[in-house]
Amino acid sequence: MSEQGTGSTSEGCGGNAAPYVLGALTEEEHVEFVAHLQSCAICREEVSALEMVANALPAAAPQVLAPVELKDRVMATVRQEASLSAPAASPRRAQSRGGSFGWLQWRPALAGALVAAVVALAVVLAGSGGGSGAARARLVHAQVLAPTGTATIHLSEGHAQLDVADMPQTTPNRVYEVWLKRNGAPQPTDALFTVSSSGDATVGVPGSVNGVSEILVTSEPRGGSRVPTRSPVIVARLS
Amino acid sequence: MQLVYSSRADAFEVIYDRHADAAFSLAYRMCNQRALAEDVVQEAFLSVWRSRARYDRGRGSVRTWLLGIVHNRAIDALRRRSVRDRGIVNDEGIEERIPAPERTDVEFARREEARQVRDALEGLPGEQSRVIELAYFGGLTHVQIASMLDTPVGTIKGRMRLGLAKMRVTLGDPTEAVQP
């Protein structure tokens, strides 16, 4: 069997299934192939078959221990964010425990409102800079104007990180650009990004967000723009 | 309910403990730099934590999901680095291999799976295993590999596909071997 005439069922489509599952397509090819997969059952089948092997390849890496301090860093962020998103768990806990808050189980609506108010107060206090370290962090759920997607801003110590999920892929000649709106005007940043095949990305927002009223994301030509050329697809209101 | 769907930090800690070494091993194999590998793994775990509600168990195990994210993040990190920097290896010489004595059933099965995958990869013709390693662990595109090896792009793609197809025959369905 020749190396090019492999009998691949996807040869007519360019034989991109193997480099795709290995992560070896260029950015542009990746976007095009993901779109192609939507309409090509042959390539989907081949990707599915080869992906099984690619998913096993991490086992071939020499196994080393993860540093202990790495766990400390990851879990510190997880605990901080878990405490900020606790309202869903709190009402159930209040109802099941009884005790000092036993009366809440008879007034679920009031209990929910009270818990929500307490959590909102905690978030406001955390965002006001009144605490120290992790207490100054807060989450902002952004409005996504794209057909799909979610976006969250993580604010801490005057800096922001944007996490997006399920966002549409940009076309090959475009990227997403992050803007900081101050005094009513969007200012460009160096934060240009594309999303993964599942629409995910984590982007550090450059510089301080002090005085920023909104963080915006637009689709721009590759290389970015100095002024927005399209309407925002993400709007996060910070104040 | 699976641990991954929980919004509790202690539930996520179990997931971290279960998969951190595998995640770091993959990241370190790809990045060859401890600090960069740590950043990649940290980003990957936080991505899993923040998007846990979207985990679809029908598309694979939590481990497969996590390692896929680690792989993508490591590729992004490698491609941001200049080609010149990429030659740097083992900057801090961590070779702290996981000690052998932990012989639980799951651990034993994982070691066996690792041995089979390594054997399958090493059992390929050299030109096929090389392009797979350069692509998967080196983070290189098929175009970069073609240029590096002075070989047509179509040949590189063919080697990748042939190698993966042979490994699939050797391994059966490797992803079914060990689930979390």
What does this structure look like?
- The complex is a heterodimer of chains A (239) and B (180).
- Chain A is of the alpha+beta class and 239 residues long.
- Chain A is 32% helix and 23% strand.
- In chain A, helix 5 (90-97) crosses helix 6 (108-127).
- The longest helix of chain A is centred in the middle third of the chain and has 20 residues, at 108-127.
- Chain A is globular and about 55 Å long.
- Chain B is built from 7 helices and no strands.
What's a quick, concise take on this entry?
Chain A is an alpha+beta fold and 239 residues long.
* Alpha plus pi helix count of chain B: 7
Strand proportion of chain A: 15-25%
> What is the second-level CATH architecture of the largest domain in chain B?
Orthogonal Bundle
- The first-to-last residue Cα distance of chain A is 64 Å
Task: Identify the CATH class of the largest domain in chain A.
Answer: Mainly Beta
What's the number of domains of chain A? 3
Unreliable residue stretches of chain A: 1-8, 88-135
| Greatest interface by residues involved | A-B, 58 and 78 residues
The total of helices of chain A stands at 6
Overall residue-averaged pLDDT value of chain B: 82
Percent range of helical residues of chain B = 55-70%
Q: Could you give the order of strands across the largest sheet of chain A?
A: 2-9-8-5-6
Throw out a few tags for this protein.
heterodimer, A: 239 residues, alpha+beta, Immunoglobulin-like, 3 domains, five-stranded antiparallel sheet, four-stranded antiparallel sheet, 6 helices, 32% helix, B: mainly alpha, Arc Repressor Mutant, subunit A, 2 domains, 7 helices
